[in-house]
């Protein structure tokens, strides 16, 4: 190669490399998806309420649907605003979105708050995903988790397995990006929150609001035993054996959850609108369940009979076969607990 060609080649390479670095230092802004990106391909954007109906049409809304699933075959998309955050470690591998009417849990991966922060609008392609019920809570995910022997516990949706979750978390970032797309960024406003208090909770709350963000105003902390369970407790797990532990009996301060010596257990506390000790957890009384991995696990729990405002995802939980129903509150951030 002569001297002139060598110089020309070097200059061209320099321009090419510089161009690459310019692109790296100034990446193009991420695409903001709109309705047209999906409707132009023939997909149909449907309300979350209509998506849930795929499951209810197949299995109903009772205990018979626990552990069952429906794989969505239609080319449908749901759109909603992110109303949960896993930044503080209490929400785990889940993302809840709300469309102004109802909400749904997306079973994804860790650190969802990085790509899908509170208030972010997201679109979810439902075709190919599994819509399933775990203890009455519907979620969108992939097929059910594998058993230790490599088999699926409920791969046939016609086989009833009460204890199965029905589906699993989407396992990779690449797969998540095939189904979940970011729309306009935003913030959480009062329009995204349902407000309840002791005077209206009976008329406002219903199972159609499961997964929604609810602000419970004026709840009373209740240290009591209901349905043979004492509150507040933490759930100890030793070799797969679960035991409820009452904090004072263990010589521990009463906190939201257990996090000692690198051992982390869920804590459960009871809040109620009842005037005295509640006799059931199915109406007006709620369990706040906090992970031992939450950043606020060792924050002190409000005293017995103290009042608080709590903003949380409204969820439902039951025994394996659908009995002993409790309504549980999933708090994203310690800032969502306001002691009065």
Summarize the entry for a quick read.
It is built from 6 helices and 22 strands. It is of the alpha+beta class and 340 residues long. The strands form 4 sheets. Strands 1, 2, 3, 4, 5, 6, 7, 8 and 9 form a 9-stranded mixed β-sheet that branches. The chain has a 5-stranded mixed β-barrel with strand order 11-18-19-21-20. A two-stranded antiparallel sheet has the order 12-13.
Describe, in plain words, how this protein is organized in 3D.
This protein is of the alpha+beta class and 340 residues long. The protein has helices at 3-25, 35-39, 48-59, 112-115, 173-179, 201-204, and strands at 44-45, 69-71, 76-82, 94-98, 103-107, 121-125, 130-134, 137-141, 180-182, 194-196, 213-221, 224-226, 229-231, 233-238, 241-246, 258-260, 263-265, 267-272, 285-290, 307-317, 326-330, 337-339. It contains six helices and 22 strands.
List the helices and strands and how they pair.
Elements (H helix, E strand, L loop, with lengths): L2 H23 L9 H5 L4 E2 L2 H12 L9 E3 L4 E7 L11 E5 L4 E5 L4 H4 L5 E5 L4 E5 L2 E5 L31 H7 E3 L11 E3 L4 H4 L8 E9 L2 E3 L2 E3 L1 E6 L2 E6 L11 E3 L2 E3 L1 E6 L12 E6 L16 E11 L8 E5 L6 E3 L1
Parallel strand pairs: 1-3, 5-8, 10-11, 19-21
Antiparallel strand pairs: 2-7, 3-4, 3-6, 4-5, 6-9, 7-8, 11-18, 11-20, 12-13, 14-15, 14-18, 16-17, 18-19, 20-21, 20-22
């Amino acid at each position: 190669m002569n001297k002139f060609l060598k110089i020309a080649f070097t200059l061209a390479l320099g321009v090419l490399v510089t161009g690459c670095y310019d692109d790296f230092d100034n990446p193009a802004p991420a695409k903001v998806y709109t309705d047209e990106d999906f409707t132009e391909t023939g997909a149909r954007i449907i309300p979350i309420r209509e998506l849930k109906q795929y499951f209810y049409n197949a299995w109903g809304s009772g205990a018979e649907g626990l552990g069952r699933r429906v794989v969505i075959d239609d080319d449908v998309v749901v759109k909603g605003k992110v109303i949960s955050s896993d930044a503080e470690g209490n929400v785990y591998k889940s993302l809840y979105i709300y469309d102004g009417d109802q909400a749904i849990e997306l079973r994804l991966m860790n650190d969802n708050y990085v790509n899908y922060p509170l208030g972010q609008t997201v679109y979810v392609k439902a075709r190919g995903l599994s819509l399933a019920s775990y203890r009455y809570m519907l979620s969108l995910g992939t097929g059910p988790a594998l058993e230790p022997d490599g088999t699926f516990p409920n791969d046939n949706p016609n086989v009833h397995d009460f204890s199965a979750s029905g589906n699993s978390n989407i396992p990779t970032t690449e797969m998540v990006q095939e189904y979940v797309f970011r729309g306009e960024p935003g913030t959480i406003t009062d329009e995204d929150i349902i407000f309840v208090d002791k005077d209206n909770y009976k008329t406002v709350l219903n199972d159609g609001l499961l997964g929604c963000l609810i602000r419970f105003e004026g709840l009373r902390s209740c240290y009591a035993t209901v349905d043979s369970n004492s509150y507040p407790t933490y759930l100890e797990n030793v070799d797969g054996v679960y035991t409820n532990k009452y904090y004072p009996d263990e010589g521990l301060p009463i906190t939201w959850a257990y996090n000692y010596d690198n051992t982390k257990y869920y804590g459960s506390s009871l809040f109620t609108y009842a005037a005295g000790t509640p006799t059931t957890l199915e109406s007006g009384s709620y369990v706040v369940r906090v992970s031992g991995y939450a950043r606020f696990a060792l924050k002190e729990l409000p005293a017995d009979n103290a009042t608080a405002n709590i903003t949380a995802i409204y969820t439902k939980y039951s025994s394996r076969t659908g009995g002993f129903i409790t309504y549980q509150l999933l708090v994203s951030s310690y800032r969502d607990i306001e002691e009065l």
